[in-house]
């Protein structure tokens, strides 16, 4: 017969170190619900901030690809696609691909599709994976915004996304820290 080993209970002290408490099903569900509520709140806040900035300056700052970026950033903050370099650079590459497509072809769905593919290639080569940036290229091709106004607004909006993501990760205790690296 094997000797009985004493296993300390969770929360007990062992050599002056408090052991972590185990979470039961109810605690896990509560933790998951709190994390989901925090994420929904953070995404909603950043999108409202972008909409508010747009309303103040009379320009559309909130575009569909930025809403998708907010979702990526807050649901998977540890992935490379959510890191600031990927978010900012990929959207700028997407805008660039969109303007290249506009210069070469007409504004239509075919050009938009090619611009989306070009964006994916550019972000892969630049090691800035961020799939919502493909939608930025599509927006540029289909809407043909003036580059002098659109690109600075896009840059500012991506910086706002990153800063709100960083602030949100510090508000909730126990949340994963964002970003893992700034650049």
Q: How are the elements arranged and paired?
A:
Elements: E1 13-14, E2 17-18, H1 25-57, H2 64-75, H3 84-104, H4 109-125, H5 132-143, H6 147-171
Helix pairs in contact: 1-2, 1-6, 2-5, 2-6, 3-4, 3-5, 3-6, 4-5
Account of the 3D structure:
A two-stranded antiparallel sheet has the order 1-2. Helix content is 66%, strand content 2%. By secondary structure, it is mainly α. It has one domain (33-171).
How many angstroms does the end-to-end distance come to? 58 Å
Helix content: 55-70%
Structural class: mainly alpha
Q: Strand share of the residues?
A: under 5%
Question: What is the typical, i.e. mean, pLDDT?
Answer: 84
Largest sheet: 2 strands, antiparallel
Number of helices: 6
Low-confidence stretches: none
Keyword list:
mainly alpha, 2 strands, 183 residues, two-stranded antiparallel sheet, 6 helices, 2% strand
Task: Provide a brief overview of the structure.
This protein has helices at 25-57, 64-75, 84-104, 109-125, 132-143, 147-171, and strands spanning 13-14, 17-18. The chain is mainly alpha-helical and 183 residues long.
């Amino acid at each position: 017969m094997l000797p009985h080993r004493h296993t300390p209970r969770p929360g007990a002290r062992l050599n002056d170190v408090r052991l972590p408490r185990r979470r039961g099903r109810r605690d896990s569900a509560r933790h998951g619900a709190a994390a989901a509520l925090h994420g929904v709140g953070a995404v909603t806040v950043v999108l409202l901030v972008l909409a508010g900035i747009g309303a103040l300056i009379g320009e559309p700052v909130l575009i569909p690809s930025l809403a998708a970026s907010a979702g990526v950033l807050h649901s998977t903050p540890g992935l490379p696609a959510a890191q600031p370099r990927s978010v900012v650079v990929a959207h700028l590459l997407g805008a660039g691909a969109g303007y290249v497509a506009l210069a070469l072809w007409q504004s239509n769905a075919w050009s938009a599709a090619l611009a989306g593919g070009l964006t994916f290639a550019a972000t892969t080569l630049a090691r800035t994976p961020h799939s919502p940036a493909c939608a930025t290229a599509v927006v540029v091709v289909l809407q043909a915004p003036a580059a002098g106004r659109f690109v600075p607004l896009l840059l500012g909006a991506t910086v706002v996304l990153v800063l709100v993501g960083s602030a949100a990760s510090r508000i909730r205790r126990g949340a994963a820290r964002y970003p893992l690296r700034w650049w």
